[in-house]
């Protein structure tokens, strides 16, 4: 039905899996990342390394993978007080949200993705947001995504689909999806090349990937890996 997609791609486990999923489903795929003054610029290096490995190790996807876009979004740090952009420790806030929460960040990302998709003639915007597992960010909810799809389609006067392949998957299922899409080669790539850690730690390679191992993002990733590995062991 749809032939082209723009994938919001940060170089993490989720967006890398979404990108692989898009490369299976669409003939033309472009990627979009944001430089919003992240505390750790490692993310921006990692996303290029992931793209490079995907091209090299999956030549049949290379032909479908088009331009990579990086938009500077310094303004985000001006409007937010988040541990993602400022040098303050990760903590839970009184409202039950982690202080990595940048209010409305995904609304801004999707609006810019919509504008870029319009200009590039891309029909679907793919994002790795998810309601399951920990985060509980309100701008990742399914209803929010549906509302954004409607707002973008009306505001651009063109049908734009917001596609969320991970919305109802937990982290173990996201690992399993990577295996279905690209076998153990893709699982290895996600383990070794992607970045999830809030602390920007690369260092030692654990079974589940690089990271500090104790921040919420690392814990979530490691727990998901353990359940995925256990389910593989029990079937085979
Ligand atoms: Zn970490």
Task: Give your account of this protein's structure.
It is globular, with a radius of gyration of 17 Å. The strands form two sheets. A five-stranded parallel sheet has the order 3-2-1-4-5, with helices on both faces. It has a two-stranded antiparallel sheet with strand order 6-7. It has 236 residues and is of the alpha/beta class. It has a single domain, classed as Rossmann fold, CATH 3.40.50. Helix 7 crosses helix 8. The model has no long low-confidence stretch (mean pLDDT 90). The longest helix is centred in the C-terminal third of the chain and has 23 residues. It is built from eight helices and seven strands; from the N terminus they run E-H-E-H-H-E-H-H-E-H-E-H-E-E-H. The structure holds zinc ion. The site of zinc ion (ZN) has 9 residues, from helix 8.
